[in-house]
Amino acid sequence: SQEGGTLRQASILGGFTSGRFHGLANIEIANQDAVEGRDRHSANGVSPDATLFPQLHRQSLFLSGGVDFTDKVTLSIDALVNQRTMETVTQFTPSSAVAQGSTSTPSFTVAANLDIQLAGDWKLRLSDVISRSRNSFTTYYPAYDFGYSGEYENSLNSAEATADGTLLTLPAGPVKAAVGIGTRHETFDYPADVTRDGSYLFGEVQFPLITPSTSRRGLYQLDVNASFRTERYAHIGSSTVPKIGLHYVPFEGVTIRASWGKSFKAPSFLQLYNTRYAYLINASDLGYAPTGTVLVTTGGNPDLKPEESTSWTFNAEYAPSAIPGLSLSATYFDIRYTDRIVTPTGILLNALATDQFTPYVEQSPNAAVQAAVIAGVASFENWSSGAYDPANVVALFQNNYTNATGQTEKGIDLGFRQSIDLTKGRLSAFGNATFLELQQQFISTSPVVELSGKVFYVPRQKVRAGLTFEKGPFSTTLTANYVSSETDTGVTPTRRVGSWTTADLVAGYRFDSTSGIGRDLRLSVAVMNLFDRKPPIALSGSVGYAGINYDSTNASIMGRFATISISKAW
Length: 570
What we know:
Mean pLDDT: 92
Distance between the termini: 40 Å
Oligomer: single chain
Helix content: under 10%
């Protein structure tokens, strides 16, 4: 039977307004049972006790309040306290050791905003944010009475001042502007204390070039938006990135938008300082050599550079007044990254069967090189079929975070929506489709590699379409979800992974005050994966975990599950 994964969730939201004061509070508690290997038919080969989906517990409290000092000055404060725990049981094969894992993540965020109405329509906002989080994890092997634990903490203090309003008025309309400045102080404790200070400045202006008018054919409205952002991080560097946008309406009902811009992103603390591990793996498992072993490293890289990108987007929307309820849209996007932060591969099985990762492979590393690598990691695990022998290591594969020379994401998003009023209700049809191409080049001398359409990467096509029927207080929606086929590159020879199509059904009813049950009571039932479709077989998924023969990035082993929700307002 399909069991496990039961979720119990409850929340209550309440608020008040009284004169110059207002407040709101929300409490939420959620508990979800684990999904074990014995609970899923499609998990054949997985240890019965191993968790396919962890046991989760979450409690959160959100508070919001404010006061209007005058009709032009308002102070508001938001606070969120959250506690999450996760429990897992790991057993890579039915005969291997059982590992019990537990992770606890308490966190809180407090944000204060002071809003001041200035002259004209100009507004000033002063903001301050304090955030803290801690992640504590423990792994225990009952068979060996052995375990290890760790903990890392994050903190963020930020302050920002922004102002926006009308800069001037042109014949075509008002020129809107916004400007802001801010600072950030971040800390990270794992395994050593590190800090990072940053500052930024941004500005944006929107120019109305042509005021809306039906007297001009093909030129109803035209606006231009220009912005910039300058960021500076200690020990990393600074960058100024621009963005330009165009909003063009040739006719009523037709809207065209285009944009060009650059971006700058500093590496995260985990990407820089995450714990480094080393593994000894049979060279034949990696497709590298028939004999010998390979030393593989993973984890952070303190030498990472920021990643930058240049993006183009072009969007067209059609919503004719002659066909009420119809909306069509198409968006083309092209994003080109430089120094994109990636790991060379997420699939170790047969990873070295080609020369794709040659830049990160050192052949025949000597004993001194191996000793230095092992000394620099937190843990060294032997996954090979024999004892570790430096003379038997034929290659060193550094699979740590790294800067790829380039990565390109380009594709098309299509959207459709049509609503029709019927004699007995309202029917709405909708659909969205994405066609994506993802390519990557590790170093300038290596070939460009296609990533989209391969397991554990983005699929080439995703489609979501459905129908909604509404009649009075009743509504129901049936949705179909499609993920295109993939190529499993972790096996030799490579094999095709089938496409995956699932259906979801949601129905809801809103009781009115005349029903005797009460005002604003809503009941909804949702069934996800209505026909209990199993994920398509992808053998690479079983690398390191027997029986997980599917692509966990693009499919789910949860199967059909139902949700019942009841909400009530007073």
